[in-house]
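Lab notebook: predicted structure, single chain.

Context: the supervisor wants predicted structures on file for every construct in the current expression panel, including those that have not yet been purified. This is the next one on the list. No modifications to the sequence; it matches the entry in the shared construct table.
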Amino acid sequence: MKIGVIAANGKSGKLITEEAVNRNLDVTAIVRNENKTIAKQSIIKDIFELTTEDLTQFDVVIDAFGEFREDKLHLHQDTIQHLSDILSNTNTRLIVVGGAGSLYVDEQLETQLYNTPDFPDAYKPLSTAQGKALDDLRKRDDVRWTFVSPAAEFIADGKRSGDYILAGEKLTLNSKGESKISYADFAIALIDEATEGNHVQERISVVSK
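Prediction complete. Output recorded below exactly as produced.
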């Protein structure tokens, strides 16, 4: 399997790339500048310069792009639109690293986490932007996309346990009543989905056991 990881130099992207390489997959880091990952192959391009030809060599493209500056949050939608357009009507899967804020907290799937009273104001703009990007993906029946949301507490330096719970649109708690996952375990779940999963045109979520 050939996998391309966009934004492979980022915190999440690096661990996803490492997980894929350690499973002996054919991995290419797609980065704007110097490749700082363990992947031996790279494409050095800005995300908006990527073409259909660049990406259709891969079975799966993992989009680990992230932007946290408030005046740049529109890039979540802009990058998704660009990637969707160049992968339109191709066989290449697009797996997007999403956020937890757009997960639903009710059985009716009407109330999203970022609209609940206790959701931190500081994270609401980012979560809203990621939610809009997911809304845009839902409109695309011409792209083989999967949007993967981490748990509410996404721990950059957390341990790699190797265990996780695969869930869907609803915020899911583990046996301890927690919604948390490490970046390392999230990377495992993402590569599992890339190699074994088939949640095409779906949003899934993962939480630690």
